[in-house]
Amino acid sequence: MHMPIPSRQVRRAQARQRLKIGAVTLLAVVLGAALSGHARAAESGDPAAGGALLLRGKGVATEMPAVRLGTDMDVTVTGTVMRVRVTQAFRNTSGKWMEASYLYPLPDDGAVDTMNMVVGQRVIVGDITRRIEAREIYEEAKAQGQKAGLVESERANLFRTNVANVGPGETVVISIEYQAPVRQLGGEYAMRLPLVVGPRYVPPHSLTSAAGLADAGDVTAPLAGPELGRSLNPVSITVHLAPGFAPEGIVSPYHRIDIDKAGRDERIVTLAKGEVPADRDFELRWRSASRMPSLGLFRQDLGGESYVMAAITPQASVEETRVAPREMVFVIDNSGSMTGESMAAAKKSLVHALGTLREQDSFNVIRFDDTMTQLFEHATQATSEQVTLARTFAEGLEAAGGTEMLPALKAALVDATPSAATVRQVVFLTDGDLSNEKEMMAEILAHAGRSRVFMVGIGSAPNNYLMRRMAEAGRGTYTNIGDGSEVMPKMTAMLDRLKSPAVQDLSVRVEGGALELTPKNLPDLYSGEPLVLLGRGKTVSGKLVVSGTIQGKAWSTSVDLDAAKDSPAVARLWA
Questions:
Q1: What are the pLDDT digits (tens) for 171-210?
Q2: What are the tens digits of pLDDT across the range 293-336?
Q3: How many CB atoms lie under 10 A from the CB of residue 47?
Q4: What is the DSSP string of 481-539?
Q5: Measured between alpha carbons, how far is residue 331 from residues 206, 326, 408 in Å?
Q6: What is the pLDDT of residue 56?
Q7: Beta bridge partners of 450
Q8: DSSP 118
Q9: Residue 343: CB atoms within 10 Å
Q10: Is 34 a residue whose pLDDT tops 60?
Q11: φ, ψ for residue 504 (rounded to 5)?
Q12: Intra-chain end-to-end CA distance of the chain, in Å
């Protein structure tokens, strides 16, 4: 469905109408976002005039700018997502009208969706519009002496905020909200709040045109001397940590923190000093030490609908001595699009994977371009002789021909000797450069059976859509290897997870209520890889029941949907 877009004239008229209330706030774009800790102030006695900027130019400023900045960050972590509210107070300490401009970093995988400006007792809600038009309206408001705020994306992880016509002794508050995923590294979880826009080297050859000069200026933050840094942009941070399990090992490697218990599975983390200079990024890490999988439940009511997020976190460790034998099928793409570094990385990945097989495992190797070859007629025991033969086969592959992946997928999903005593895993090594994605997904949904499909995207620009959807349909996971230097760490991490499924045959149901849940096809759980389920319904009632098998034994847990914790992130995740 497409919403009609008002004409330019109508939008400008609407914007001018908003200006009549004395303030306008505009978001130029809403992509992974931010504000910064270096002030620039225009000196002029006339609110409609421009002027020189105190901290603009080369070198390091030793004079305190007229516009000071204070930053407060309130973070809510629910499950595997963080919701961040950045509130910045621009205070004009001079007797003149000023304009402030700040660069500010945000996570590159975050998304800004809210902006407000507070002037006195008035709250003005930000609009999202095209960048050029937003800039024009901002400049018009500034020229008319009216309060205006503008947020523009300079890079995916770098935003600029401008605040026009800050009066003598006046404070203007800008509030931005964004959402970003929590990083997962094995069994450890981490969130990072970028606080610094570091100096950026600008190559001389990029300054030979007006466009190059403008671009360099957009991402260059003025520098403040060390004596100013501590008082120029103080920051306070509060983290409401509710990961869905009792967090342990909470540490911040770059800041001293205080930790307060706010419930069995919740913690409140603050800076030990209350306020600190914004001279380094803030990172918080935690882990789960639970011996059994945990289930965290969160909800948000919005627009007459109830939204639910369930975070299922596997147990911290699995006894490797009890890991079931595996049937591993490796499918490697040697089509023409893999020529060069991609082929080298794929071959190196396969050779490394072959070296992790145990004698109780069985395996096969399938290669494809516009033809296909199966190394063995059926999966064979992973003896040293057979593994050596497969390694020689892999090292001799060369990239050429078309990308006919469907026959290779069909061959890989053939389960000749199904057995509950073994785990069957299919690992694809490909860039995924093909157009028949729907056929691939349909084949997996129809014939995957007990097979789990794991996608390894090779190269700097793989077909991420295909990779993620095939992994989702095949109840597996997706890993991207951008170049040869990433092969060993990323393949090792993935294969370590694959040899130790934490929970298999996972299923979820709602008892005593109705809830639309996604995803439909649930993967096995592996240590360090939680599963996030999202649900929507008119009401939230009943019980959510999660069950599966842990090392061959039945396991189940449940939680009352009424007990779900409030979260500001859930509805946006569903969207």
A1: 888 888 999 989 876 678 899 998 876 666 566 776 777 7
A2: 888 899 999 988 899 999 888 887 766 656 678 999 999 999 99
A3: 20
A4: E-SGGGHHHHHHHHHHHHT-EEEEEEEEEEESS--EEE-SSPPPEETTB-EEEEEEESS
A5: 44, 16, 7
A6: 30
A7: none
A8: E
A9: 24
A10: no
A11: -115, 165
A12: 15
Taking the C-alpha atoms of residue 330 and residue 366, their distance in angstroms, rounded to an integer, is 6
Tokens 């990323």 sit at which residue? 490
Q: How far is CA 363 from the centre of its chain?
A: 34
CB proximity list for 575: less than 8 A, separation 6 or greater: none
Please check the confidence at residue 25 and state whether its pLDDT lies above 50. no
**Among 346, 82, 104, CA closest to 218:** 104
Which residues face 190 on adjacent strands? Answer: 183, 285
The CB-based long-range contact list for 198-206 (8 Å cut-off, 24+ gap) reads 199/223
Are residues 47 and 170 in contact, defined by beta-carbon separation less than 8 angstroms?
Answer: no
Q: What is the pLDDT of residues 107-121, one digit of tens each?
A: 877 788 888 888 767
CA separation for the pair 548, 423 (Å, rounded): 14
What are the structure tokens assigned to 197, written together? Answer: 């826009």
Q: Are 353 and 491 in contact (CB under 8 A)?
A: yes
Phi/psi of residue 545, nearest 5 degrees = -115, 125
Instruction: Name the token pair of 426.
Output: 């299919």
Q: How far is Cα 575 from Cα 571, in angstroms, rounded to an integer? A: 6
519: left (phi over 0), alpha (psi -120 to 50) or beta: beta
Residues 249, 253, 255, 258: what is their CA dihedral angle, to the nearest 10 degrees? 0
Domains and CATH numbers, the chain: 8-287 (2.60.40), 291-319+502-574 (2.60.40.1230), 324-499 (3.40.50.410)
8 Å CB contact between 425 and 504: no
In degrees, to the nearest 5, what angle opens at C-alpha 111 toward C-alphas 107 and 112?
110
Does the bond joining 519 to the residue before it have cis omega, within 30 degrees of 0? yes
H helix intervals, 312-414 = 341-354, 384-395, 405-413
> Could you give the CA distance from residue 493 to residue 499 in angstroms, rounded to a whole number?
10
For the residues of 40-109, what is the DSSP string, one character each? Answer: -BB-BSSTT----BTT-SSSEE-SPPSEEEEEEEEEEEETTEEEEEEEEEEEE-SSSBEEEEEEEE--TT
